[in-house]
């Protein structure tokens, strides 16, 4: 499954948690995202993480919103080192320990799109858990 979702920022240096549109892709049990589909296809991935053990919840505040809660043990979240012109896959990825217990707050464009994502994410969590 892939497509655009709106995610709440992690706070950054100034603590702002703005909502930004990002291009997400779920492959098996790995959820990753980039600024745009074009960036994704060029390998300019912002972050990726395994959803094994995660809990996918509906948001209480928004009909199209949902949340990806990490497992109680935390999750390994990776970003890609930034070169002068953006992400450079040749520089490799690095683990972002500050995001290991981060809840990802996401919104879809419609209820139908939200239901698709929630159902597929939950199924991926179940399949990955069974494969352990």
Automatic annotation (TrEMBL):
Ranges for domain PH: 1-126
Pfam families referenced in this protein's UniProt entry, alphabetically: PH (PF00169)
Protein name: PH domain-containing protein
Organism, as annotated: Aphanomyces astaci (Crayfish plague agent)
Origin superkingdom: Eukaryota
InterPro entries attached to this UniProt entry: PH-like_dom_sf, PH_domain, PI-Interact_SigTrans_Reg
Database matches in PANTHER family: TANDEM PH DOMAIN CONTAINING PROTEIN
